[in-house]
Amino acid sequence: MTDQRVSILRTFKAVAWSFFGVRQASEYEKDVRQLNPVHVVAAGVVAAALFVLALVILVQWVVGSGVAG
Fold first, then answer.
1. Whether pTM exceeds 0.85
2. Where along the chain do its domains lie?
3. 8-state DSSP, 36
4. φ, ψ at 21 (rounded to 5°)
5. What DSSP assignment string belongs to 5-36?
6. Would you tell me the crossing angle of helices 37-65 and 3-20 to the nearest 10 degrees?
7. Which of 7, 16, 58, 61 is 20 to 30 Å from the Cα of 52, by its Cα?
8. If DSSP codes are grouped into helix, strand and coil, which group holds residue 1?
C-alpha cells in the first residue's frame, strides 16, 4: 500500500474510535503527531454523514415494516 492510502485508513480508524469515545493515550499522541488535521475533519464529516444516512435508512425500514405502527 502507498503511504497516502495508509494515512487515509489510519485517519478513518482514528475517527471511528473517537466516535465510540475509546482511545488509548499513547495512540492519541501518535495520531496527533502523524495525522493531518484537515484529513481528520474531512473523515469526521464523511463518517457523520454516513451515520445519519444509516439512521434515516433504519427508521424508514422500521416504519415501512409496520413494526412501529
1. no
2. 3-65
3. -
4. 75, 20
5. HHHHHHHHHHHHHHHHT---HHHHHHHHHHS-
6. 60
7. 7
8. coil
Find all residues with CB under 8 Å of 47, minimum gap 6, and list them.
12, 15, 16, 19
| Residues recorded for the chain | 69
* Residue recorded with cell 495508509: 6
Q: What per-residue string of b and e applies to 20-56 under the rule 16 or more CB within 10 Å gives b?
A: eeeeeeeeeeebeeebeeebbeebbeeeeeeeeeeee
User: Who has greater pLDDT, 6 or 30?
Assistant: 30
